[in-house]
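Worked Example 4.2. Consider the chain below.
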Amino acid sequence: MVVSGFHLQIRQDGGQLVLIHPHPLQPQHKTTNGLLYQGKHYHGDEPFTHVLSNGDVFRIGNQYGTLVTLTYHDSSSIARLPVPEIAPIPLGASLITIGRGPGNTVVLNHPQVSGNHARLERSGNTYRIVDQNSTNHVYVNGQRVTSDSLMPQDVIRIGPYDLVFTGTQLIQRSSSRSIRIDALNLIQYGDKQKILLNDISLTIPSGKFVAIVGGSGAGKTMLMDALNGTRQAKAGRVLYNGQDYYSSRASFSAQLGYVPQFDIIHKNLTVERVLYYAAKLRLPSDTTDQQIQERMKEVMKAVGITQRRKLLINKLSGGQQKRVSIALELLAKPNVFFLDEPTSGLDPGLDRKMMAMLRNIADKEDHTIILVTHATNNINNCDYVCFMAPGGYLAYFGLPNEANVYFNQSDFADIYSTLEPTDTEPDIPKKAEARFKQSPQYKQYVALPASLMPPPQPGAGTSKPPRGDPWKQFRLLSARYLELLKNDHINLLVLLLQAPIVAVILVLLIQFMLKPTVFTAMPLPITAEQVLFIMSFVAVLLGLNNSAREIVKEIQIYRRERMVNLGIMPYLFSKALVLGILCLLQCAILVIAVNVISPFPQTVLLPPPLEIYISLALTSLVGLMIGLMISCLAANSDQANSIIPVILIFQILFSGVIFKLTGFGEVFGGFFAMRWSMIGMGSSVGLTAFPVGYDPNDSSFPYAHDTGHVLGAWFALLVMIAIFGTLTTYFLKRKDQLGR
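Applying the procedure from the previous section yields the following structure tokens:
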């Protein structure tokens, strides 16, 4: 039972209607499930009275997620407006500071606002607004500014706040608390110009919970991605509060939350640490650790994972992991929240709880929530439902409880089959769209809101989201990566044991097969070249193996963080630093092991072990950068693994050790790290022509015991590191344009 026998009372008080909970006749003055209003739960024995105004929504829900919704409408049909969070701000002082900190002239207490965000300076008869190195920046009329002279009616955006400059006041624009989304004639194409969205127009009012449903291939995710800009529509416009969104994404980037179908959380971190790193990356840089901890507690409580905050993500169930993803996106209090199949794979009970949780978040935080789902059992929790038909047609948009009557079906699931084309009637989706456009629901929920839409404003900003402090991001990403490696015990053990195992094999090989005099005999025998070849091969192998999966395995996380404020260089350098240290350690183990069993001879520039180590370390770092580039290009970890052997085969063939490289082969060999590695190490130890199979007068002999050959090899390896690092950066950048 959800509703008690005597749950609520509504009575006349003068000229007003007053809702009373619990009902005075309810036994023991305690209802079973209490009352939900604006996201707050009033317990069964908790008194609550409220003067009703048009648009008030009350809900009664049980522990299983079943909700009964009560909406009050008076005869005025005028929706209740949100109460402004700040009063008009009078101007006149020579300096006015704006920020989250209590010492500011204007205090905007929101996580998207920096402690000292901006200041207004008197400049003649007007004011100049100056960005004080804020995290989420300052926008004037949708365009990011660092310092700009204001004109009357300019709209200043600071975090989620829109402040209109009148010349004498700053007035908060009412739309700044939430965002209305208008889609105008959206068209999207797929491969071979297949239509994925077919001229979609609709309006999503601010602060509403909307479900996009339909069969596979109906364009549900495509519509959501068009609305949030992940994959922009080929034609049509998306307006956020009347402003062109595609050309002004940067000014809205901090106000959007997005949970894709794939997990966007690292599985080898605890719930607390996932949220902590996300908060440090996304919230303003002057947010204190205490404020971060408080916000983390709020979002964990909101999604019901407080008791599991110390657990690793991989120890949680699928539903709990999805809740962590939602909590992560709630950290910055987004105004619009997109979720792609958040209930996929959950049992019916968890599906119901998830939908009830999202309903509560929408009510409490005044979020606009847009949800893509296949499951329709709990659609009545939503304010609106959007039914998509195959081919990207809009078959229905309106209230959930009206959809069954509209389609003449008792079950939402049965609506799917009515929209599927058949061999005899292939144009069912097109007919469904045409029927909807003639319906009362279309007039009320699509045509009427469109007619009341304010004139569209051109986007004056940029589509690129603002980037955070690169040094701060580098430090945080490096620390997070180290923690991820530490928590992945098996992978860490494999990485740490690779070099010692190879070193032991090399020592045994030298001791019992090649003899310990391999580097002490004069002239050096061919076995010296063979040992150096093995060391060079292992260095490239370790670099490749360490890095080839490290980007592709977390590409969904990278893309989401990139949508917010992640810079490419901090991300790439954090990978290169941690993995580079590992490569240097592995190479040191190899060099020390070989030098102990058979000391290297006198080298050209530096002590023998150090000079050999530099050549080997640079070789491994080239392998590392090639691996990161592969990780950017591969579609998944398995594909990355399959590319490694191909790279190694080419390295071996063009190393110049298996066979002599002459003519084109010698030129082509210059593109491979093992070739330069062998030139550097072979020249350092003084390999000579005859023992390694060359004629003393052969000009193709690659080694010479002199400074030029060693430094030349090192320079070539450094150039390769730079080239492959640049290519990796380029391929990462391309992912911004290619989308998912």
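The CA atoms of residues 319 and 661 lie 58 Å apart. The chain is about 40% helix and 20% strand. Compare this with Example 4.1 before moving on.
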